Amino acid sequence: MHRPIYTRYLLIVMCLFSVTMVSQSFIRLDTMQLAAAKQQIIEGTASPQTLEAYSKLLQQASSVLKQDNPTVMDKSIVPPSGDKHDYLSISRYWWPDPKRQDGLSWIRLDGQTNPETQTEAVDRKRLALMGRGVYVLSLAYYFTEDETYATKAISMLDTWFINPETLMNPHLKFGQSIPGHPNTRPFGILDGRSIVQFIPDALQLIATSTQWTINKQTKMTAWLSAYLAWLIESPLGIKGSQLTNNHGSWYKFQVTALAMYLGQTDLAKQTIVVTEHSLENMLTAEGGQIHELERTRSFFYSCFNLEALTSIAKIGDDVDMNMWNYKTENNKSLSLALQYLAHVVNGAEWKHDTLKTVNKTDLLPIVAAFFDTYKTEDYRTLLRSILAEVDKDSRDANSQEFWLFHPDFKI
User: Fold this and answer.
1) Signal: is it a keyword of this entry (predicted)?
2) What are phi and psi of 127, to 5 degrees?
3) Structure confidence by residue, pLDDT tens digits, 173-223
4) Domain housing 230
5) Of these four, 27, 93, 158, 346, which has the most CB atoms within 10 Å of its CB?
């Protein structure tokens, strides 16, 4: 069991903790957007799209209220460590080798999801359900101030991070494992984005709940501190920091976000600088993302990687670092990467391989981030074009979140 590192950080945090210890800045959310949306929803002046997004949020929160709390203890496959508290997932694009009777070692078929990797036997779906579920509940609590939502969110946090009988150990050593291969790959760190994208902001949203205590906050801070330490100190974490594709970008996002939440601004700034420098070898002269264009789902992974990079840039705003305008010595930048992708919105053909139809709405969180930063008519027009592609009956999470936090935006 990997409890020593968690226990060590718990003791440190208990000695140093105060209510103001953690950052008061959101990671993904925006304080002004939240306040404006809440006020307009209460007054009934929000756009129809925002009111619909809010209604969907409450429906989703009500659904989560009825679900059992996810826990790593529910998996049926025991990790190599023998400890079910260790997170376990299997890499989705790997399949049994048909040339071998036992199927080992598994082989990679990029872009083709093996359904056996997505079952309840491992933890990936549970982790995603926990992260998204806590986030949805915390937003519902913020907008309604109904303690029912906060109580369930806190219960889910307790099950996944705090209760010693059910908690996940703060590492991803067995994430994206592959049958027949040693556990020396850092790619499982990608799964951790389900924690870092949602949990720090959720903790900020539920901080005003009567159910949330200093003791619980202390233990959550200790868990996140231990996980950050694993990311930057462990052999797998160090390997993750050296990756130059979307895995490396989401690694850097996790480190930057956790460092900001935990008040380690120097580490956050250092990671942002490293991210800026990574653009030189990540992008072509035209803005194409070299490693993502090699994938069989090249448009999706290009958007996926750029979303990580823009998420880091948004955090940089809180420490006076303008990654948005950063250019390498060869003029490579975030805006150049977006321009390369945005042509498809205007009808240009995507010239790279892709197993699936290009989904223009994959660009939505990226373009929304650029619009929020620059507020230009060009980005407004691009946003409108993307939003026009969204099926009103779809369950597109990107469009729902956009409308929830942009109550004044006009189509």
Assistant:
1) yes
2) -60, -45
3) 999 999 999 989 999 999 999 999 999 999 999 999 999 999 999 999 999
4) 1-242
5) 27
Q: Residue 61 belongs to a domain with what CATH number?
A: 1.50.10.100
pLDDT of residue 24: 62
Which segments of the chain have a pLDDT < 70?
1-24, 391-395
Give residue 21's pLDDT.
44
Beta-bridge mates of residue 311: none
Place of tokens 């970008």: 249
Give the count of domains, the chain.
2
* Co-location of 221 and 332 in the same domain: no
Reading phi first (left if > 0) and then psi (alpha if -120 to 50, else beta), residue 145 is in left
On whether residue 271 sits in a domain, the answer given is no
Helix (H, G, I), strand (E, B) or coil at 168: coil
Q: Give the pairing of strands 94-95 and 174-177.
A: unpaired
At residue 353, the pLDDT reads 82
How far is residue 270's CA from residue 357's CA, in Å, rounded to a whole number?
Answer: 38
Q: CA angle, corner 10, sides to 69 and 71, nearest 5?
A: 15
Q: What is d(CA 70, CA 133) in angstroms, rounded to the nearest whole number?
A: 10
Q: What is the pLDDT of residue 6?
A: 64
Task: Give the global pTM.
Answer: 0.94
Kindly write down the DSSP assignment for every residue of 35-86, as one continuous string: HHHHHHHHHT-S-HHHHHHHHHHHHHHHHHHTSPPP-GGG-SSPPTTS-TTS
Domain co-membership, 187 together with 46: yes
**How much is the pLDDT for 393?**
47
Q: How far is CA 291 from CA 10, 173, 200, 248, 302, in A?
A: 39, 24, 30, 11, 9
392 burial (CB, 10 Å; 0-12 / 13-18 / 19+) is: exposed
